[in-house]
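User: Please go through the entry that follows and flag anything odd:
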Amino acid sequence: MEEHLQESELYEHHRIICDPGQEPYRLDKFLMDRLPNVTRNKVQQGIKDGFVKVNGQEVKPNFKVKANDEIVVALPEPPRETEIIPENIPLNIIFEDDDLLVVNKEAGMVVHPAYNNWSGTLVNALTYHFKQLPTMKDNEGRPGLVHRIDKDTSGLLVIAKSEKAMSGLAKQFFDHSIERTYYALVWGVPKEEMGTIDVNLGRSEKDRRVTVAIEDGSRGRHAITHFKLLEDLRYVSLLQCNLETGRTHQIRAHMKYLGSPLFNDATYGGDRIIKGTQFSKYKAFVENAFKLMPRQALHAKSLGFTHPVSGEFMQFNSDLPEDFTAVLEKWKNYVQHD
């Protein structure tokens, strides 16, 4: 653009405050890590066109952002309407009081409206069943949400119904004091029965939808997953995973890094045979198991937190869904009779 638009003609789309521990890092790469569905060219052009400001100043794409910097992305067109259309979708509520509720989300349901999924989400359902849910600052369009799980991951989510619950739960997530336990069926068997994966995660520069491990810590965000072997099924294993941090696709990306992607996780390479024989009988068995559970084998099994109003510690547990149980039984039978 030859002439920058006046500030009054721009609409704020994103406002990001860098973490207090942020090391100096190129602005264009930083935004690629933080913003969904963008290319490096698009980010660099936006910076050159003056649509990105750091601490109120226009900068170049190679500008190094640092701790506590404020980055604002403002564009000529308004952001998509954040009004949520309430939809009468049934919810599996396992606990509810005046301040919060715990729901057991089924696989296939998107948690909040976003690109390509503006309806049929958990948030559409929540706004139908509950009025005036609180919204976290800078999280417009996602009332009640303090965390999320992927579309094809099943399991437990806590939802805030009051402002006090929202701030109290958000602080517990920030402090990593929430207990989150997942069950994952993964390819192969880890060398150790228990372990911790402490490797940064960031968006892939080749495919922005994918999260990748970054061993040298040069970019991405700190991520810690603890795992424990529950069942050794020779070709696959059932793991218990506990999250210390909550990054996008954290368990899925960390298990891929470990060499044991989740069973039938197409995004991370688990939708093909990773371990086992080349016999046609085995291939047919695995294909049938894929059909039985046409998603990544990941379930948010339990959730523990301190009630933000009463101060009571609460623990919730959920059963594995039918597709997960069926595939697990299928593998047990196979290794017993193989």
Q: What stands out?
A: The chain is about 20% helix and 30% strand. Helices lie at 27-34, 40-48, 122-129, 163-174, 250-258, 280-292, 322-337. The first helix runs from residue 27 to 34. The mean pLDDT is 89.
